Amino acid sequence: MRVAPLILALGLAAGLAWWFVPHVSGRQDSAGAQDATATAEQATTRAGSPASADAPSPGAPSPGAVPVMIMEISAEPTIDRITLRGRTEANRNVVVRAETPGRVISEPLRAGTRVDDGTLLCRLEPGARQAQVAEAEAALAEAQVEADAATQLSQKGFTAETTRVARLAALQRAEAALDLVRLDIARLEIRAPFAGILESDTAEFGARLGIGDACATVIDLSEVKVTGYVSEQDVDRLSVGQPVTVRLISGAVHEGAIGFIGSMADESTRTYRVEARLPNADGSIRDGMTAEIGVELPAERAHRIPQAALTLDDEGRLGVRLADDSTARFLPVRIVREDTGGVWVTGLPETARVIVVGQEFVRDGRPILSTPVSWDDLG
C-alpha cells in the first residue's frame, strides 16, 4: 500500500474542510460575530491601535481559496507517432480468364507453383479453327485478285470508280476476318500476365472453358501493400514517401514507405485509406496478414502530464488547468501520444504549473491554495 497518495488525499480533505467549515459557521453565527467585531474595534480604537492591525498578512491564502495539488512540468523534445491498424495485400492479384471458348488439353499446374511472365497456364483445343484460317486466307486471296483487276480497269476507263472502291473495301474485310481468326487461335494459349505464384490450380485437363471462365489465379508478392485507415484529424500529417515501420501479427518488423493516401473519406467512418509498400523479394510476407503501421512524425516539444490532469472547459475543449500565481486558468491542449502513466501534450508554456488534483473544483480566476507534488507522490 502506498503511503504518499493516502497522505495527499487526507491533506486535500483537510484543506477542503478548512475552506468549508469557517464559511458555514460564519453564516450561523453572523449576528454574534458582528457584535464581537464592533466591540473589538471600539476597544482597539480606545487603545490607540490602528484599525488595520487585523488585516491578513502578505502571502496569506485568499478567502475562499480552493486547495489543489500542482506539478511543475517543463517541455521536452518528443517524437510523435501515428499507429494504424490494417492488413497486407498482394501487389497484384489477377484471375486469369479465358477469352475464347474451348476444352482444356494441358496438364494442370498446382497451387503454390511459381510462374514467370508468359508461363503457359492453360491450352485450349483448337477445334475447327485451322479450317477457319484456311477459309479466311482463300477469301483474302480472292478479294486481292478482284481489287487488283478493278484498279487496272478503272485506270483504263473500263469500269466505274465506285466498283474499284467496293473491291478495295471487300479486300479490307477479308484481311480483318483473317486477323480475327488468327487472334482467336492465339487466345487458345492462356499465359501468366506477370511473374508470381499460383493461388489456385489451373483448370483441369478436359474441362471446358467459356469466355470469362477462370483458368487460374496469379498473385505477385514481390512487393506487398499494407492497407490501413487514418482519421481526418491526422491525414494531413502524412505524405507519400514517408517512411513507416510495419509490425506483423507474427512479430516480424519490416521497413517501408507510404505509397498512397486516399482523397475520399469512407462514408461510414470518415477515415482515409493509406497504403504502405514493403519489399518482399523472398515472399515471406503473405497476403491478408494483420499488421500495424507505425509512422513517426518530426520531433516537437511537449509536456508529459498525468492523464488524470486532463479536463474539459465549458465549451467542451480538452485541456488542463494551470496555477497562474494564486488563481486557476484553463488552457486547451493537443495530445501527441500516450505512454505508461501519462500523456504528452502541446499547447502549454515552456514551463507549466499544472493542477493535477482538484482541477475539477475550480474555474478560471478562482483563488487556489496550491501544494507542489511530484510523479512519485502520485504513485
From TrEMBL:
User: Which stretches of sequence are listed as region Disordered?
Assistant: 29-65
Q: Please report the stretch or stretches of sequence annotated as the CusB-like beta-barrel domain.
A: 229-294
Q: Which InterPro entries match?
A: Beta-barrel_RND_2 (IPR058792), RND_pump_MFP (IPR006143)
A GO cellular-component term linked to this record: efflux pump complex
- Tree of life domain: Bacteria
- Could you state a single Gene Ontology molecular function term? efflux transmembrane transporter activity
Q: Where is the composition biased (Low complexity)?
A: 31-65
SUPFAM superfamilies per UniProt: HlyD-like secretion proteins
Note the coiled coil stretches, chain numbering.
Answer: 133-191
Q: What keywords are annotated for this sequence in UniProt?
A: Coiled coil
Q: Which family does it belong to?
A: Belongs to the membrane fusion protein (MFP) (TC 8.A.1) family.
- How is this protein named in the record? Efflux RND transporter periplasmic adaptor subunit
